[in-house]
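Q: Could you fold this chain for me?
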Amino acid sequence: MTPEQRERYLRHVLLKEVGGQGQQKLLAARALVVGAGGIGAPLIQYLAAAGVGTVGIADDDAVALSNLQRQVIYGTGDIGAAKTARARAAVARLNPDVTVVEHPVRLDDANARAVVAGYDVIVEGVDNFEGRYVLNRACIAARKPLVSAAVGRFEGQLALFKPWAEPGLPCYRCFAPEAPPRDEQINCAEEGVLGPVAGVMGALAAMEVLKEILGIGETLAGRLLIYRGLETATRTVKLPADPECPDCGGIRRG
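A: Sure. Below is the predicted structure, expressed as structure tokens.
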């Protein structure tokens, strides 16, 4: 590391679980953030501040006025601009060590595997089940860990999926075999979300990404963390694997 980097990341280097070698791992790492919205905005900030060397940002949306209540990486002057471009500009202001790769597209089964293959860890904060299923399939095929975060109203949830890592670990499809009926889905655009809830979940997602890169702490794989903002409470529940899962069942049967 350069003298400037040693000063910038001093509080990381002082941690015995990270140290200089861990910071070098972060600087060499590549993380893909899918969805530069309420969860993605603080997530991108923390990954960039931590010195994750390459951050990919996949989003095909533009900044809207209604985003600014929770998508803290943007400002009023960004309204109407592509989220990937404005997020890249924000990262450049925050940390010149970080390279941002823009993917201003909606990921689907035709392009997701090629994009995912270029990264070490994938983290998503998308707002639809179809997008999560696409990423789940792509991450299983590429053997890439998938950090998945979601928010609604005053609550959030977080999980890490890597079913190939050891027996009994589920994938996202094991957790949510089918999308619930439309009227049962929580949608921020329709039901709202308190801004800091997105910040809490974005920060927690960033923590899981850094843990995966550094190889420290207790993995969240196989568990679901639930945050309830109005009660200021968290709990975790165990997630079982489905041996007949159409996305990852073949790993266990093979």
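A (continued): The longest strand covers residues 146-152.
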